[in-house]
# Entry
Amino acid sequence: MVKTVVLVSGGGTNLQAVMDAHLFGEIPNCELTAVISSDPEAYALIRAKSANLPTYIVDRSLFATVQSYNTAVEQKLQDLDADLVVLAGYVQPLGQGVLKIYENRIINVCPALLPAFGSSDMNSMEPYERAIQAGVKLSGATAYFVTAGQTGPIILQQAVEVWEGDTPKTLQRRIMEEAEWKLLPKAVAMFCQGQLTVEGGIVHISDERK
# Structure
């Protein structure tokens, strides 16, 4: 079983999508080990507790520097013996230590068809605003392995129509419902079944389940 730890900061809708998929057997070979929140008030913690998942808080506000905070997160992940780290609305930048230790083992979902319209600010409305301002007819979401910010080898993408009269808020909601909540659990399932390999920054997907 792949020990999977989810990092959260907010409402936890992406966490809920992963938990629901796991409950219905859509993520084989996955052990949801724990949820770690950077915010003690995050609603995602309530979602996790409702699903009887162990929860931990590494409160960003208690650390003087980003480096010291990330060191604490890194230590907690290692204490939990995590095989896979999933970012589900996690807004803190990951430290180099975590990125190195868990290379090609950190999965996130971005509300854009990367590399277009991404944002270095993970809690930004910028991807939706930029898509609307550019007049594109398709936006969407991307599940990827995190290397830094919203960059890394792309695992899956799903296009979503941009409608006439869309606002950033309406586009955000549609991308979540039609793409993010589907892609993240699917990418996690592929990883847990041994279907993903990364070569030269490119993700290769095998049909053979290990």
Q: What stands out?
A: The first helix runs from residue 13 to 23. Helices lie at 13-23, 43-50, 66-79, 96-101, 126-134, 168-192.
